[in-house]
Fold these 2 entries.
Entry 1:
Amino acid sequence: MAFTYRRTIRFADTDAAGVVFFPNYLAICHEAYEESLAADGIELRSFFGGQDLVMPISKSQVEYLRPLTCGDKAGITLTTASLGPDSFSISYEVHRFGPPKKLAARVCTEHVCISPRTRERHALPAALAAWVAHHAA
Amino acid sequence: MAFTYRRTIRFADTDAAGVVFFPNYLAICHEAYEESLAADGIELRSFFGGQDLVMPISKSQVEYLRPLTCGDKAGITLTTASLGPDSFSISYEVHRFGPPKKLAARVCTEHVCISPRTRERHALPAALAAWVAHHAA
Amino acid sequence: MAFTYRRTIRFADTDAAGVVFFPNYLAICHEAYEESLAADGIELRSFFGGQDLVMPISKSQVEYLRPLTCGDKAGITLTTASLGPDSFSISYEVHRFGPPKKLAARVCTEHVCISPRTRERHALPAALAAWVAHHAA
Amino acid sequence: MAFTYRRTIRFADTDAAGVVFFPNYLAICHEAYEESLAADGIELRSFFGGQDLVMPISKSQVEYLRPLTCGDKAGITLTTASLGPDSFSISYEVHRFGPPKKLAARVCTEHVCISPRTRERHALPAALAAWVAHHAA
């Protein structure tokens, strides 16, 4: 089930070309990830503070389709896919609300669960596996 | 009349000390300024794109009282003060919602209206002067 | 011919996991792009201020291999590839200097030249085409 | 003894007004602080990773005098002042190299040493006290 996060584009997101600085699409999509985890009852501080297990991002991909500017109302819709017991991907579509609504970017990230001590792969914690299943495309 | 903007603290706001990176308080307060301008009907893209007049910040001050971490729910309350026909200040209080609600930072910025061509001071545009009056402490 | 840019990892680059925030790899690679353009005599302010032609990024890809932390000495090596008269790609390798030297990330961006007024594709300006040829893999 | 750090202004530093986004002056000055600590032999990862003692910033002040744009060559000169056994301040001047050289901003930060467990003030570690003495105005 897709999850949608709404976000106004801020002056801090922009660069001297007057539009959202291209790395910031990844940061904005990560906000949607955080909001979605929180909505499923996962506590962010301990999740990202990671003493036991950490979930680093191993890959990211962005297609930039239309620029976004300060004040634009954006919607970021995410769906997930399991890549095995210890990894998953998230696909995001970033829209600018209109009318007409326009697709601004497509983003994909891959995440791997590892033990911070050994750096070895480890099965996803149950709450995260449930979150992946909940938002599977 | 004070204006309050609500904002969840994001992973992107934090640094390796696990808390909001200190320059980001200014960026978060600027979001409250943007939201408040938009709420009073000022169009952000042209306001910050500034062909005719620009409103650069001439001073900023922050007192950091309590750290904020990823997932915290914050409220940023702003009030304004006129400093003359061509300048104004904004005072912000950043709270972390609780319970109990705690003051995390006090921020103040000063803004000057200038002509981008001559760099000379110029009276505030009417819509901005009205915004300053509307939110005066 | 490859171009290498050296960069110390800063506290501002990090996040609450204690390592470089993943979107910031794109920003750090863009610095290498800027430094390389400047080294070939291209004036950055007018290049990125873009009245006549703009060079937005249409795609980005990152593989994150090893985390980087505050104080690390990094080297970013770029090479280019022409994708036609109006577009090119840049491949980056981000290393952490050691000893031993370790590959931290592989990054790729695609760039398209367009006219800002019509949003239509346009041949690269001569100085940029020369830069692409100079750094071709 | 003053310490000077040289830094090219990057596209990532700028905002839609075409100049350095005002919170980023604090981040750029923090880079000068990091570089200066490293030059005096303080290891940044453990310093900012802070298990034993942490040095949060309690206040910051910036006067913005002249805008900086992408490609500008800047110099950030810092001097320190002791504020007691457990705190100190840093004064920064940010210049744009010319000719002529121009002052772009004046920045001041105050830092307090605390124990991360008790949040109580604690005397500066010896290496940091020596750094403060070394760069006293």
Entry 2:
Amino acid sequence: MDLYGHDLICTQDWSVEELEAVLELAAKMKRDRFSPRWTSILQHKTFLMFFYNPSVRTRQSFETAATELGGHAQFLEPKTMRLKTATTAGETVEDAARVMSRYAHGLGIRILEDKIGAYGEGDDLLREYARWATIPIISMAHDKYHPCQGLADVMGWLEHLGDVRGKKLLVAWGHGALARSWCSVQEALLIGSRFGMDVTLAHPEGYDLDPQVVEWTKGNCAANGRTFEVVHDVTSGYEGAHIVYSRNWMSPDAYRDGQLHKQEEIDRALRYPAWICDAAKMALTDDALFTHPMPVDRGHEVTDEVASGPRSVIYDVAENRLHVQKALMALTMGSM
Amino acid sequence: MDLYGHDLICTQDWSVEELEAVLELAAKMKRDRFSPRWTSILQHKTFLMFFYNPSVRTRQSFETAATELGGHAQFLEPKTMRLKTATTAGETVEDAARVMSRYAHGLGIRILEDKIGAYGEGDDLLREYARWATIPIISMAHDKYHPCQGLADVMGWLEHLGDVRGKKLLVAWGHGALARSWCSVQEALLIGSRFGMDVTLAHPEGYDLDPQVVEWTKGNCAANGRTFEVVHDVTSGYEGAHIVYSRNWMSPDAYRDGQLHKQEEIDRALRYPAWICDAAKMALTDDALFTHPMPVDRGHEVTDEVASGPRSVIYDVAENRLHVQKALMALTMGSM
Amino acid sequence: MDLYGHDLICTQDWSVEELEAVLELAAKMKRDRFSPRWTSILQHKTFLMFFYNPSVRTRQSFETAATELGGHAQFLEPKTMRLKTATTAGETVEDAARVMSRYAHGLGIRILEDKIGAYGEGDDLLREYARWATIPIISMAHDKYHPCQGLADVMGWLEHLGDVRGKKLLVAWGHGALARSWCSVQEALLIGSRFGMDVTLAHPEGYDLDPQVVEWTKGNCAANGRTFEVVHDVTSGYEGAHIVYSRNWMSPDAYRDGQLHKQEEIDRALRYPAWICDAAKMALTDDALFTHPMPVDRGHEVTDEVASGPRSVIYDVAENRLHVQKALMALTMGSM
């Protein structure tokens, strides 16, 4: 298996064996974080980071990852880059991607929420860069997928459960003054189902995710002989769950007329206060772990009691962002 | 003495011996700036820098310090970080600090002037980060203190005077179209008095500093058998001084109703044109050094003649920011 | 020849031998990009980058260059730096430059278009920094010159033509919704003529460049026994050309009353649709290379057919920015 030069836009594009190779290397890197085995992998090499949207963990974990591999990550904000878009003149993606391929060894892109006018535009942009660049394109979260989050999630679940095959994953919608992208939850559905979990998706009516992702998840579960179900009540999904993933996401109506109707989504999301992960619901599970990609909206998506409780793995999962990204960069850009 | 893992929010929190350890190492690092003894101390390690307020010297000297120790400093602007504040939803300091502790080996925070609504809020924020983070929290200047400036000041004074014990430090208010924070001058009072100086604080009526800081300074002087005095005339403080520190600061009335009344402060500060450090006043001193944390407001806080004169140590002190910060990072985050 | 400590504000300030030394080292660095001969040249050293104007290639290529030499480039935006300007209070260039010289080993400055009120102000600023700084000042493109672009241009032309002496360079104005600075084209005229080319400058009436630059170019050509001409028709310059450089630039009327009249320039530049480099015009040349400093305004300055055609060297020239800048930093700031 040789992952050198591969793009990672969605985990569904990679084989389970390839994803396992990343997780295996990430686990070694976590055990022996500053080993000389890793610290020269990207020595003197550059990873470009395009942040259309700001970020805390993604910025910090990617930039730290490059540093720990001996390389350097450049923090770039495309708003200052005179790039061509639907509405502004500027450089074509072809020209930008071809030149960047001469300078750098990888390019990460983050594009979410209000930086797009319709669901899918972010994914289109990443695939356009992938078309022209000769270096790997890595999603640092975009409208459709968040593959590094998915890898970090599974790494954390494996650390705490030993194995996830045959375990039940609940992905539950959470309320709050929020209109969050679909990328993290969609990635969780895809990667959880790839790794052999039973998957339950729970949300109020009207909060459907991308039908293609739901279809893939169903197919992944079927291929592994596992179950997939969608429920619309608050509690039934919790029964027997081993992992609970409670997170807000916007409705399919969020993008209309070329823009995100954020306030409308926030108003709508506040109408479902029962959709919070709390101790009473967690009591219905099979002593489930609580997982979340952060930032956590405490008091809305989940109570403090659960988020800071003994079964919460949120900090471990967040830490794993660093390790899976190091492994990913090493395998796709380094000399491994 | 083991400083590994220690926060530095104010020099008054550290013992004189600990501060001297920083200064001693800083002097060695200055003598032999790129020695292999130092260049691997933070190798592959990350220092996070939160700039709520912009900066020239602080940004450059911290980022350069990390580079010279073999590590990397990440420049972060919290306004893009979706953190929870009094007025905005977002991530709690607990969650942010716990995750950052997994990625980085230290966290610097700068928060001043208009980024707070009342004196003390910046200090509260740093102490809240210190509460949750398991890595050192370093003040890069906040409303109350500026410990790295204080260390650089003393390092420069020692270089030029040999010893500061028994020497007279004048900290004098300067006029100008400014409303500067109290952090640098308060730190100078504290650290000067810790190191055995006689201290005179000179300012117009109505420009009192934090009573706690004045109390500590008085106590430090008393513990060393030195004098402390406050004067409200322009010239008397200069008599017999060995070091003159002339700098604008805002009045205690600057923060009211949860905000900084900057224009009012500027108008007020311009009413005292006699409060400028000039050659005539310097002639009253015992051939005093002129010191200032920069940026200098030439023509208001001090004349060009004095700022660029033979007794000015402003560039040496500014350079020392680099060396004391390298020493501080080495001792609190590195493997020394 | 010792270039250590030299500023590079315009190639005309350097001897041809000095420019050739940069190109020779750049060629070696390109052949063996990560050789240990280069990767420690700036080890643990800092290069400061002041971006008054944003950039893609310049930022990426300078930051990558520092990384590949073992050093670190700091991305700084002077708008956050409280520097003194004609209209704002703040720190003097003297104070800023003197302190930066204590921290860093070089300082790059980019200042263009709307960040100045009259042609020449950017150049004045760089020369003011050069006056006070004790470290090299490198232009990263300013209103008058773009020396790194000029070096990258010649490096690319040499790669494709073997020798440029006696070859014909056409620098032709291009239309479009643009008002581009003079720096790149002026640098091309100067460096092409220094290296022994015949030079033709083609533009509509009213688009004269800096008379000083035209005078120097004429002198350079004369010194080499080559020709220099200015033409005002669209096609005649193409005849017999070996290199075609088609690029928009603003008129000499662009700056008036202390500001850039950008929209006026754009409206004016759109009135000349015949001024585009296309296949028909290229057919008049001696199988000329197409060159451009990027970003390319495809469909205005040049057709897609030519920009992406077999004789286009735009990506090679863009790549060479990295190599010439590495060589330049090595020679002026490193231990070569």
